[in-house]
Structure formats: structure tokens, C-alpha cells
Write the C-alpha cells for this entry.
Amino acid sequence: MEASAYTDTFARDHLPPLEQWPELLLDGNPDVDYPARLNCAVALVDDLVGRGDGDRIALRWTEDGRHCSMTYRELMELTNRIARVLTEDMRLQSGNRVLLRGPNNVMMAASWLAAVKAGMVTVPTMPLLRAGELKKAIDKAQISAVLCDKRLSEEIEHCLDKEHAAYCPSLSQVLYFHDRGPDSLDSLAAAKPADFQACDTANDDICLIAFTSGTTGKPKGCMHFHRDVLAMCDTFSRHILNMQADDVVCGTPPLAFTFGLGGLLCFPLRVGASVVLTERLTPDELLATVQNFGATMTFTAPTFYRQMAALLAKYDLSTLKTTVSAGESLPDATRQLWKEASGIEMTDGIGGTEMIHVYVSSAGKDVRRGAIGKVVPGYVAQVVDERFQPVAPGVVGRLAVKGPTGCRYLEDERQQVFVQHGWNLPGDTFAMDEDGYLYYQARNDDMIISAGYNIAGPDVEGTLLLHEAVAECGVVGKPDPERGSVVKAYVVLKPGFEGDAAMVKALQDHVKAAIAPYKYPREIEFTDSLPRTETGKLQRFVLRALASEQGK
């Protein structure tokens, strides 16, 4: 590895041992041949300004009914000012972890870029996360500072409260943005000079810890380098999306998801394009955004495209040329419905937090019906059996993938599960045809993917079990034509409690109040017992089969 620029070496110290890393395909690929010293925030914004394109529009948004915009030069200056607040007012050191909490808006985007520019390790988080969920990430990454939208302050304040169950001992500083107070990030940044000397980071210094939840509900921190951020731009975005400087991009994935961080920030910045940042969108509002801003490219989940297909006639979408789907499996019926309604062949893709972004995809004339696509240039893949031997074309097996990016968990024993024999194993089953097209079959773990959200069933189970009426429960995904899957809970009640509609609502409200609301069980079925092994282990596969049958 290159010599680190970081004073605080926590992140690099907690990388997995090198022998547990996947093989990285970097040599001989000019797309990902980066200099030894590299700061991706500088590469995404400052370098473009230095090339004379500072007056191009980087960010667009709506405020009080008005269309607003920010040039690349203005974005560079804003990130410089925020970086000064981080280093001068908060006195953060290079390598410190900074948690970011906010919806998709200018300050959230600028805060991420500023923290990276200043040599911090960013930890973006979903706006809907509750204090207990934030605590898992804060404790795991030993986070000392938070930049947070003022409207989302309540859960963060719990993490600062020594009397609260979610108290985080490592957390010492919080600055709020979208706040007019004199001590807000907005006010402090406005008073700073517009120049800043970026941290001289190595291309393999860690700039991002993206948390995901696995089947146990324990958060996994996926650590990515400065070069990884550029690699996702210079592979999927360059070769599949062919994003150009005149593109205008919009969509729904949060910047806290790497799907959103790439598609709605890094990809457009890499080529001098512009992105429309919107905090929350319905299908109608996304279509209106395309019309009002002349967007050329959208990023969202299949559920949204299915809902938007019925609404297209109300809008002028003449500028729209590329529609990208990811976050959950894209049903062929949804792809065809969208194509018939819009005339646009959807670009599907499979990626993951561990790999940072999409590594299997095809676009336009290269799309093959029923397939997600081929491996993105720069990556290689094979489908293997349980003995890790490649299977014949058409045979279902586990997907194994290599490329310029790969899985490096923050001090996690599951590293050796995801990475085996130098290959990343994302946990999906696929079949590959003779031409290299990959056909998705299913997840091979307990993750529920609903409307683009990853939901760990055991996380919901643990929350339900905190309710006084619940004796036992099992949570699985039930197939759903609109959302891909919905969360379904099978619940055994304690004696004296009635399994009626009022109890269903009480349990749903309990989950919504305790963890992110999108995780709540949309269906609850009361039962006398749950299927278990002789040793008492819950047989979730039995519940999945039952839910699948019920979903037909």
C-alpha cells in the first residue's frame, strides 16, 4: 500500500489482512490507472475547474418554487469552506471518521466532498435510521464527529445523551446544516475563505465506510479507497451509461447508498455533467423533475418505473434518453412495461455496497431479454458450484466476481465468507449463457429487498421481540408484484394477547418507532408455533417457502 496521509490510522489499521482481500484487477487497465497520490474530491470538482470548466452547472435544485443552480467553481468554494470548518473549528485530523446524515440536498453533497477533500473518512447514513441503528455504525467505526441536517437532529441528540440507550462514547462533536444559527455549519462555512489545501491522500487511503446490514442485522462497514470512487465512475458510468458533460441527471436513491452516491453525485461530477438534487420524490414528482429540468438520465428502483409507466402521458419527457434501474431485481414484466410506455430500453444492473457500485449490466442494443447483462468492462465473473468449480452455461450457481474494486470489511469475520480464493461472492445465484450474459435467480441469504431497500429479517425480528406481546417471531420476504418483496412477520403471541387487527397495527407502529420505518412488516400472520430444528434454530427457509406460496 502507498504511504498514508492520515494522522488517525484507525481505518487502515482495521482493514482485513491482505491475504483476505480479493484479487484486484488494476494492472494493465488504463481506465483505472491512477496516480499514487489521489484525492477523489479534488478529481471530481477542483480538477474540472482547473481545466476551465468552472462555470458549468454542477448542482440543480428547487427552493421555494424557484429553480436554483450551483456552478463547479461555486461547489469547489463551498467544499473548501466546509473543509476549513472541519479542520479549523472542529479541529478534526486526517483519518477521523465523520458521519453524514441528511437527505439529497446541496449541503449533504458538499459535506461529503468537503470531508473527503480534508482527508476524513466519510460514513454517510440513511435519513430514516433511528438512534439505535446509528449507534451501531458510530461504535463500530469509532466516529467522533457528525454533520447532520438540522431537521434530523432528534436521533443524533439521543446518541449524545449519556442517559439514553443509544449513547455513543466516541461521539464528541455535531454540527448541523440547514440551520440559521451562528454555530451552524452554514454560518461557520460562510465566514471562511474560499480556498483550501486539500489533503495529499494516497489513492488507497480510505475515504468511505459504507454500512450495510447482513442477515444477522449486524452492520458491515465496507471500506473504499479514493481510487475506488473514481473506478466506479470510470467503469460502469463510462462504458455502460456513457454519461457526457451535457447530461442532466436525477433520481431517488439516497446519497447514503452507493447507488445514489455514484449515480447522483460522483458519475455526473466526473464528466462535468449536472445533477438535480431532490430530497424526496413520488413517481409523479420524479417525472415532473425530468420535465422541468430537462433531465436526460434517471436512477431509481424497478418499483418506481412500474408506477411511472402509467403516468407518462401527463409529462413531456422528450429529453430523457437513459433510465437506470438497480437496488432490487428488475422483473422482465416491468422492463417491458416501461419500454412500451416510454420507448426507452431500461439499463439494469447488479452491484453492491461491498463492490461500491454496479459490476454487471448492459445497455441499449446490448440488452438481452431476461438477463441483467454482462460484466462491466474492468470486471470478470464466473458462476461456480459449492466446490468453487465453474459450472456449465445455463447451470445455476454462485456468482463470483473480480475487478478494480472489492470487499474490505471493517474488522469483520464475515470477510472470509464474502471473499474466497481471491473472488468476491456477493451472495447471489446466477446462470450464465454461452455469450456471457448473466441471469439472476435469487439471493442466497436472508436479506429482504423491498422497493430498493435492503432489510435484514433478523433486525426486524429483534425489534418485534421487544414488544410485550411477542413470544416468538420469524421475518422473511414475501413476493410482491409492486415492491419485489414485502416484509412478512410470523408471530407467536404470549398468553393473554389477542391476534387481531389492533395487534397488527400495534406491532407495526412499534417497529416503525424503533427502527427505520421502511423496515416495518407490511404483513403479520399470527401462528401457534414456528418451524425449528431439533437444536431450536429457526428454519427461515420453511417460512420463506410458505410466504412464497402465499404470494402466488
In short: The CA atoms of residues 58 and 471 lie 53 Å apart. Residues 447-550 form a domain with the GMP Synthetase; Chain A, domain 3 fold (CATH 3.30.300.30). The chain has a mean pLDDT of 94. The longest helix spans residues 72-89.
